[in-house]
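Appendix B, record 7
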Amino acid sequence: MHLPRPKRWRAFASADYRPFQTIAVGQAFTASYASDALFVPLLLRLGALPALVIVVGAAPVAGAALQAFAPQILRRLKGDLRSLTLGLALAEIRGFVLAAIVAGVAAGAVDQLLGMALISLTVAIGQTAGVLSSSNITLWTAVVLPDAERRLVGPRMGALTMALSTALLLPAGFVLDAGTQAIGLWAYVAFFIVSGVASTVTPLAVSRLPRPGRVLVARETAEGTEMPLAFRNFTNASAIASVGQGLVPALSLYALRVLGMSAGFAVVLSGVAAAGALGGSLVVGSFLLGGSSSRVLRASFLLRALAGVCCAAAIPMNPLAPAFLLVGSALFNGAGNAGALATNERLYRLAPPNARVHCQSRFVGTTAAAAGAGAVVCAAALTLAAPAAWAAYTLLFAGSAVSRTIATFRTEVSPSWTSPSAPPAETSIPRDDAG
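Structure tokens (predicted):
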């Protein structure tokens, strides 16, 4: 096991990386108080059908397929990656919009059905823009920073976001239950306002990132250069796993609708997910400095298959169903975050240096489309199987496990746990720990 190394955290804590640190903090507030953790119980409270919640939650995943058009968009913008990312980062402050809508519903000024539609649109569009913004920030680090610094910054940004999200979400569950009993929908308004205020730091920090200059994308690379075979195989295996990602309904939706748990439990479930993601980030982020990203990715698929089995076992007749759901959530997100870090590292190890924009856009577009297809199946299954809802959820969890198992066997790995393409770990810290 590769435990977090304090000297690398000290390097990341330096003033040189302050914008990256600030982005991580802003994204933590958005992810905690203006995303799935709150909008799922909110929509259900307003009377939304489970299928609508699935579609709204899946929209950002499927919408990330728009990243496939990044080369064309950058050509139209004459390589201005900075303005594109800044524009998308404004979606992080959507908490203000959500607060205004819910306040209107709570005050009786906005019809409940209209409020539900406006919340759904705000979440779908805002989170899609947020996913694209994060993808562009990742691309930014690959363009601006040397590989050694990219390996230092990326995992620690994710770990910082997850650590803060855990601290924000776990107590929020108890506060939300108490708040909704005391003041109803106004409790959600308060959380959304906190999110909006805190998330304003994200676009401000993006504006202070090291400028990438003009990120020029040659047309002939997109139209005439074949992607490496290893990259295509990696993309295909990841796409199979992404179908399984789309098949998984929101665990908080299952907890609320099938197990009859409270909105506070749903938020705590998201907190446990964030804690799991933090653990995966801390362990894998250090290992990937010199370790095999392909082997980490394959292990993450296997653990996510196990998570699907845990969730499938959380049937209503099982007295330990909430505990199984909590374990599944931690595994899904711990292995998922570890897999995301491994995926990002593998992508840039396989992509030719002069084709990183094309490789990243093609990979994100393909996997997002696959996840979107899985989400369509998920929404259709929950709509058609309403009388036997718990059985439909169980089959979806099992289907996700099968998908991840197939991806496990389809993933090509390096001969050992040491990466042949990564520099020695001890040389991966830039500037002698000065950041």
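Remarks on this record: The first helix runs from residue 6 to 12. The chain has one domain: 12-419.
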